[in-house]
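Pasting two entries for a bug report.
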Amino acid sequence: MKAFVLAIAALTGVETTTFVSAADLQQPFIVPAVRPESATGWSLAVSPYFWGARLSGDVGQFGLPAIKLESDFADILKDLDFSFMAVGEARYEGFSLFGDIIYTRLSAGAATPLGLMTERVDVTSETFSGLAGAGYSVFRDGRSTIDVVAGARVWHVSTDISYSGGLFDGASARDSATWVDAMAGFRGRYFLSDQIYLSSWGLVGAGQAKLDWDIAAGVGTAFSDRISGVAGYRALGVDYSHDNFVFNVVQQGPILGLAVRF
């Protein structure tokens, strides 16, 4: 969120060129290939993943006017403190339960040129996104499936600013928003062979956001009976605004995942 911090810096005399929102690095969901049903009828899969996404859109916080963002993945990565992304699925015959969790934390700081109002400004941004849903297969051919799905996505985005030295020494501020959107769409996988499969995902919805959408497609290959790799591309967009908090962004980029089956 480079431009956003520059707007804050203008109010306090800070000169800085590095910061992006934690929401700049967010969530893909490529469908992992589940193992054939066990004796209990259930099949399970968990897939941690990595998303090299770029971000564009409008973001506004702390009562400031919304600003346009254009952040490449390299800009985001240099401010990344911690990130965790994983998806899981449980399937019983034609029914499925799935979830997708993402947490990211980014931070940046800069010294002021004069140090009168403050000597340094530090900014930390956190984003959590959790998706939970259920589906039913409208097409099944061996392990290949097409599911209609419905669920809900919870977003939480927060930014903290702290000041050190000068007249503002010890002062801090926080702006955050949490919202929930209902989602519906499809999930599918098609096996080209016992080792290689195609997967896709498409959801659209709304709720507290005006629009929330998510599409992904990829190819997976099995390394063993339990482990396979997935590579693809994902695009996600959300348009949320409330009480001068604006988060209207599109994120897109390549993804890599590791699916573990139980």
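Entry 2 (this is the one that rendered wrong in the viewer):
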Amino acid sequence: MAFEASPSRTRIRMADTADIVIIGAGPAGMAAAIVARRHGATVVLLDEQPAAGGQIYRGIMSAPLQRLNVLGPDYEAGAELAREFALSGARHITGAAVWQVTGDRHVHYLRNGCVRSIRAGRVLLCTGAMERPFPMPGWTLPGVMTGGAAQILLKGSGMAPSQPVVLAGCGPLLYLLGWQYLRAGVPIAAIVDTTGRSDYRHALRHARGALAGWRYLKKGLGLMAALKSSGVPFYKGATDLHVLGDKRARGLGFVSGGRTRKVESPLILLHQGVVPNTQFSWSLRARHRWDESQLCWAPVTNEWGELDVAGIFVAGDSGGIGGARVAALQGELAGLAAVTQLGKLAAHTRDALAAPLRAEVRKNLFIRPFLDALYRPKRANRIPADRTVVCRCEEVTAGDIRGYVSLGCIGPNQVKSFGRCGMGPCQGRQCGLTVTEIIADARGVAPGETGYFRIRPPIKPITLGELANEA
């Protein structure tokens, strides 16, 4: 039972129930909802955004033609999935910030200042990815953003810079955003790429997979060719990156081609890949592993995406980075598994439906080892020097963390006690991976031995007044 208070009276409200509750309306969440509804399950999908799409397809159903032309065909492809989801019959609750998922599958969320809960037969975590931290001198200055944040502004509202911008780091999103900015008429002061010759040599070990995934390879080469042919200054193998400026960003300094360089710009966009958003799976105390190929934590699941917490599944990039198409396929697989567990689909039928999905997942992941090797973030860009701020919320530097280790700190949870690192509003999202690697490096052990922050609810901020109103 749940209780709801009003100024005039107190009344008892039965808690909502659903066969399946899905968190996240990106490709994985939408695809899972479609499959589950197709097999007769009641589905509630919770998402913070005002419309379906997730980060990758943000604003897809309301984007004007001009924005579709700017963002390109990969973005526009999400419209078909969003339309099918809208017709599926799933209950879509927008503006819902999920702040807790319990092991017995109660999902608690905040919407319009009111706390609600749903009892689910099965829960699917489709929370996607978040950008990898890119700590460097000056990265906390005004005028410095992540490439993903800039792309969200472009997708969500068509906002783009009017002054020349610097894009710095590595990974496919860096080139995609640059290409989109060219189409939007945004002046690009420079692209500063940390990918060097040694990265290409390492990636060539996976050339067979790259050739098998030639469509992705062709797409990436096309983006790079468009940027270079447009005359955008392009610096390769950049090292020693630092933001110029005291009170706000005024440019980026770096070394490239054996020369010290600087590019003036009031807006610096940083990006060095994305990593799974694992806050919910950690809060459930599910088992995780350190993925050395992608340099991040990933939840341990079975072949259907189910955690070692019974009845709770992970699908899409929140379980490992694979891209939008793979996320949708994994959403379908998790949806099939969930409805089978609920008795709405026979196991042999599930397996027959899953076989072609698994084959397509494998095909779309052929290129992944090549990309992981080519765009592997540099050690210096993951494990910064002492004076660099790591925890932006509490202003804890890398040197502070190394000092804690010298005093006996052995992992991220102890860092909280030593200096409040990871205890700010972001709950360790911006610093967690960096803290893990700094401590592991200082102790001379593997990141997997160091561990991660112990994530506790509320996953999203909630006031005591809002929480009290649930009772």
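Dev reply: Rendering is fixed now. As a check, the viewer should reflect this: The chain is about 35% helix and 25% strand.
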